[in-house]
Amino acid sequence: MKAAFSFGSPYPGTSFIHRLDPRAKLLFGCIYMGIILAAQDFAQLGVIAAFGVLMYAVSRIPVGNALKSLAPLLVIALLAAVLNLFTVQTGSLLVDVGFIHITTGGARSCAFIACRITLMMLGMSLITMTTMTLDLTEGIEKILGHFKRFGMPAHEIGMIFGIALRFLPQFATEFVLIRQAQISRGADLAGSPVKGVRMVSSLLIPLFTSVFRHAETLSAAMDARCYHGADGRTEMHPLSYSRRDALALACLIALGIAIGAMNVLR
């Protein structure tokens, strides 16, 4: 059975973006999110969206896979958008029904926040889909390694991140399997919201049981292999920056300059 969603699941390929250094991808992801936060109107978000579409085209990732990786995370964008819809009360009044007051400013803020968060998630999804989990783990470890002198456990943080990212698709798939199993046993999970809340235990309890079972299996496997952290650990393929990373950085800087210029000319 296919995974419930592909966020955290690498898409195989040899494109320009696939071959970038994982440390560079992580840093570029942070810069990309900063550029999105600097955008102040829909025109700027449109430029960023065009840049994102170009990056997905360069990576040769099908549109269906990109949307599939994002679908379960759209709830975050939806919640943030709805909060802005009801809390921002600027502009002229559009809806005034009881305690519900929706203004033009709230509607604009709702759409803007939804687009901004969606673009952020698409950017981070591109990183996870073009980079192996082990490479991301090593990249995080190398980046945080500069802070080891301050007592930061860089290797452990990288390992935790890698394990969490690796098991996201698996747990999502298990959730779907558990739900289908409960429905086949006669559980009514499609009723009213109140009934749905009562039935949630029939999904969460087996799911958490599975989570703890996987955790025990993983810890036993690591112990059997004498895992003891980064002490004495060697690298088969040491990370190294290349001209591709410099070119990607130049493209990102150009995007940042374009957004900055659009802000100045507003």
From TrEMBL:
UniProt GO cellular component terms: plasma membrane
Annotated localization: Membrane
TM spans (from-to): 26-58, 70-87, 246-265
The keyword Membrane belongs to this UniProt entry's keyword annotation: yes
Entries under CDD domains matching the protein: EcfT (cd16914)
Family matches, as PANTHER family: SLL0384 PROTEIN
This protein's name: Cobalt transport protein
Species per Swiss-Prot/TrEMBL record: Slackia exigua (strain ATCC 700122 / DSM 15923 / CIP 105133 / JCM 11022 / KCTC 5966 / S-7)
